[in-house]
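User: Please fill in residues for this 132-position structure.
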């Protein structure tokens, strides 16, 4: 199975081979400022992810632990890359077709914005929920 996606203008394109993953949402201040709301992403094993068009991809080193990838032309927030992780996080909104996945957890809810409610029934954590 191949899932294709990219930014709004086509300056960044990617493929994911195999199954997708459930969506996790992060409400930390950094994610909210970067995405404009809160950041939602699917953790995909890096070995199953491939950039096919990367000419407009720009990386912002948001901390010593991570970088965030976005399109330099249209501004689409696309990727979260944690240093030394076997995973890459991909925005579910960047996929061409519906993903069929649902949000299964919210992290850093203690930093959530005051302009939205978390009422989807997914578990909420005040800080980081370590991978199981």
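Assistant: Residues filled in for all 132 positions:
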């Amino acid at each position: 199975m191949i899932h294709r996606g990219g930014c709004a203008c086509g300056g960044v394109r990617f493929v994911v081979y195999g199954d997708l993953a459930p969506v996790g949402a992060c409400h930390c201040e950094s994610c909210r400022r970067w995405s404009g709301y809160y950041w939602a992403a699917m953790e995909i094993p890096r070995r199953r992810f491939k950039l096919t068009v990367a000419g407009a991809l720009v990386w912002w080193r948001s901390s010593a632990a991570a970088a965030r990838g976005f399109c330099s032309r249209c501004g689409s927030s696309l990727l979260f890359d944690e240093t030394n992780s076997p995973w890459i996080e991909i925005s579910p909104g960047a996929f061409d077709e519906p993903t069929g996945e649902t949000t299964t957890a919210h992290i850093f809810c203690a930093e959530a914005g005051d302009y939205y409610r978390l009422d989807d029934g997914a578990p909420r954590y005040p800080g980081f929920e370590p991978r199981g």
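For context: The mean pLDDT is 95.
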